[in-house]
């Protein structure tokens, strides 16, 4: 089997795993309203927090982050046995982007997914734990200082390619991170408009 076929199959599996929306699954298991029906209508941890169920929000955050992390780690673990060493970085970059894309456009939920912050963090942590922790620190710092979740996410999205270049220089991983960062920013376009209008507050209940 050619490397291209292996890469496409791995990307498909990653996309299908990414399509599992933990915000929706956890909300159903805990008897909560569909997160797409209130607040920001976004199936993500911040919006689930608006339900008042902190445990559900934590489970959502962990689930969405772990699916990104686990997929990348599995690729690193099994990659050497199924693909040439020279193609490992490409395989990881494609799979990492695919699981993130699955979260944004989930097959199981009519392609109506979340904004991808937690899943992006999991992917970056899988790529390089120092990179993941550095970008996560930017998110936490910006979110804590501003008390605005979306501002933390946007700050992290802008920082991610810079930290990736610092850690790994140019190359395939950098392009994957740039793609993830750009999609994160696009998914937060309504938040950007609210920020510019001075009306955004990511932690305020509806």
Could you walk me through the main structural features you see in this protein, from its secondary elements to its overall organization?
This protein is mainly alpha-helical and 206 residues long. It contains 10 helices and no strands. It has helices at residues 3-18, 22-29, 45-49, 54-82, 88-104, 117-127, 129-146, 149-168, 172-187, 189-196. α6 runs antiparallel to α9 (172-187).
What share of residues is helical?
A: over 70%
Count of discrete structural domains? 1
Count the DSSP helices: 10
Helix/strand structural class: mainly alpha
DSSP strand count: 0
State the shape. globular
Distinctive features:
206 residues; mainly alpha
Topology, element by element:
Layout: H1 3-18, H2 22-29, H3 45-49, H4 54-82, H5 88-104, H6 117-127, H7 129-146, H8 149-168, H9 172-187, H10 189-196
Helix pairs in contact: 1-4, 1-5, 2-4, 4-5, 4-6, 5-6, 5-9, 6-7, 6-9, 7-8, 8-9
Summarize the structure.
This protein has helices spanning 3-18, 22-29, 45-49, 54-82, 88-104, 117-127, 129-146, 149-168, 172-187, 189-196. The protein is mainly α and 206 residues long.
């Amino acid at each position: 089997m050619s490397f291209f076929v292996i890469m496409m199959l791995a990307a498909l599996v990653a996309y299908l795993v990414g399509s599992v929306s933990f915000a929706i699954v956890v909300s159903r298991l805990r008897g909560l309203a569909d997160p797409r029906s209130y607040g920001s209508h976004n199936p993500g941890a911040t919006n689930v927090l608006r339900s008042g169920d902190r445990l559900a929000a934590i489970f959502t955050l962990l689930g969405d982050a772990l699916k990104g992390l686990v997929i990348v780690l599995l690729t690193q673990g099994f990659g050497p046995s199924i693909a040439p060493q020279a193609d490992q970085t490409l395989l990881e970059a494609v799979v990492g982007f695919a699981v993130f894309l699955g979260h944004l456009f989930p097959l199981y939920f009519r392609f109506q997914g979340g904004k991808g912050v937690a899943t992006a963090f999991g992917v970056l942590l899988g790529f390089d734990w120092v990179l993941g922790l550095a970008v996560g620190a930017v998110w936490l710092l910006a979110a804590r200082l501003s008390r605005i979740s979306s501002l933390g996410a946007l700050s992290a999205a802008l920082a991610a390619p810079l930290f990736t270049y610092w850690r790994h220089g140019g190359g395939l991983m950098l392009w994957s991170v740039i793609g993830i960062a750009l999609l994160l920013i696009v998914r937060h376009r309504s938040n950007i408009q609210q920020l510019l209008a001075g009306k955004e507050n990511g932690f305020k209940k509806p």
